[in-house]
Amino acid sequence: MISQFFVLSQRGDNIVFRDYRRDVQKGSAEIFFRKVKFWKEDGKEEAPPVFNLDGVNYFHVKVVGLLFVATTRTNLAPSLALELLQRIARAIKDYLGVLNEESMRKNFVLVYELLDEVIDFGYVQTTSTEVLKSYVFNEPIVVDAARLPTLGPAALFMQGNKRMPGTAVTKSVVANDPGGRKREEIFVDIIEKISVTFSSSGYVLTSEIDGTIQMKSYLTGNPEIRLALNDDLHIGRGSVPSFGYSGSSGTGAVILDDCNFHESVHMDSFDIDRTLSLVPPDGEFPVMNYRITQEFKPPFTINTLIEEAGSLKAEVILKIRAEFPSSITANTILIEMPLPTYTTRVNFDLDRGIVGQNADFKESQKKLEWNIKKIVGGSEHTLRAKLNFSQELHGNITKEAGPVSLTFTIPMYNPSRLQVKYLQIAKKGKTTNPYRWVRYVTQANSYVARI
Known about the structure:
By secondary structure, the chain is mainly β. 12% of the residues lie in helices and 43% in strands.
């Protein structure tokens, strides 16, 4: 059970607050925000998602800049509390369409009504948007999504040559479009988060893909959906002959180590033709989660060179190369590298002619940050940094610097090669053909290169 639930803005303002059991002191939201903002424990500057303070357990997740927080004095399973917070955020977004501070403040009556149905006296009742529709009657006040900051190329949905902005999914699942009409459309996201560790010589030590197929439906009448995946999709390493597999980067079979499906998915024909049939519930939900540990071609390679340039100086050379096709562009790339604790100043030399890149030395954290707005496939970028130290080097500098970490987003690319072959919608009667939008996105979960 949970005692309190609240949502804070980036400034610490209380947007939503609900006290279910009254066994946690008042002012817990302020206590939590002050603790998180000035976190200095365990040698880290970022608070963990779960911590205990004065006998109160705090659980929090950050969703689009908002802090969703739950408190309790009981020994509650952390995974349960964190999953609950994520599902509450998802349910609120389903109803409001746009999840931000403005939309929550304009719809605070609706948000409180949702919370009262989701949690009763600290106990979870339901987080299903489909079920909540029977009990929640307030209409959302729609926030104009056009005023939201642009998400860039990563927010484009594509099917063939059709493109449309990602704001198409910033609609409430319960509110009609202006004029009372509801546009028939369905969105499918194949999101893959990859974890890769490189050795100092550039070889891949570990690699893994955590993928999910997300669906959001704006179809009326709850029609049946048929989602077809690759014919050469296999589950389990022993499910395909060794000669039939040539790695996820090649042309062989797509092999999933394991996977699980949403409760609405029927798998009657999955073993025959790799087709999933389901009646999608309202709101956004994961159709399928999967994991791959077979080798695949990493989208980026990182090369790092550190050379001493005197007793109080050193030079760092960072090279990043995009290993995906030139028709694809990666966005919001961030390269970080911890530096020796006695580093006092860093001078940077960036490649000329590249728009949207900058480098910075975070002196308080003693790390180098290199931001690149976008990288086209097949291109290579280099950063040179000259380090100045406050004391002489005593040993190997590579032992006191690194590893290099990388975060990025690559739209319309997935290293596993898992594909949606077709998306069929069973509609009764003569109706307009619903729009179908399919997007592939690859993100870095843990992308690290040792020095």
